[in-house]
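Homework help board

Subject: predicted structure for assignment chain

Our instructor gave us this sequence and asked us to write out the predicted structure in token form, then describe one feature. I got the tokens but I'm not sure how to describe them. Can anyone check?
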Amino acid sequence: MWIQSDNWETVRQGLFRRRICDLGLRIKGSPLEPFLRQLEQELAAKGLDFAPTFYLTDAWGCPDRVPAIGIPFYLASPILGRIEKEQTGDLEDGQTIMQLLRHEAGHALNYAFRLWEDPDWKDVFGPFSKPYREVFHPNPWSRRFVRHIRSYSYGYTYAQKHPDDDFAETFAVWLTPRSGWRRRYRDWPALQKLTYVDRLMGKLCGRRPKCKSGALLAPVWELTMPLAAYYRRRIKEYGQTG
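My token output:
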């Protein structure tokens, strides 16, 4: 049950004491629904009969090799979104939410159809088995990679993090309506990746996913920490990496 009060500080402090799993959060009926419908419409418009699973968790991401998109729980509630902005100084706007959804949809589709197993995929993006590291050293001037989402630490170079992210970013640019990717990247080596994705997506029409489910990572009903502890952890992690 939410804290009932006209005093924002009372509401805020009451929520800080609550466990995240007890906040009754769900995607249905939340502000997230229009964005998820838009993503599904964009996938359908490209001829892809694929709909990832969506669930609330503590951060953006897909579980390893599971076609499910985890979305931060605070985006399911305007009140929690207000707290997120107070605590971190930032909150994803609609444009950023769609950019992140398209990126994560690339991961989910990769996992659903196990695309990384194709030798051609490996030739284009590199080995999926490459070690995944949170800290990497990108070349900000490289034109071998598309530029889509912007991370705080690495600007628009997120595609350089790992072959899986390279594919997800390339897919996101390809999926974005009116992105004009053929024109925008016409003089870039990254265009070869985009044209490969364009051909590959055409081959997926009518194909059934090889993987439809798997273990979710930190779903909201397992987040037993109080909201205050969640933000203490966030601040500590930012202090280590920011």
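Reply (TA_rk): Your tokens look well-formed. For the description, you could write something like this. Residues 21 and 222 are 6 Å apart (CA to CA). That's the kind of observation they're looking for.
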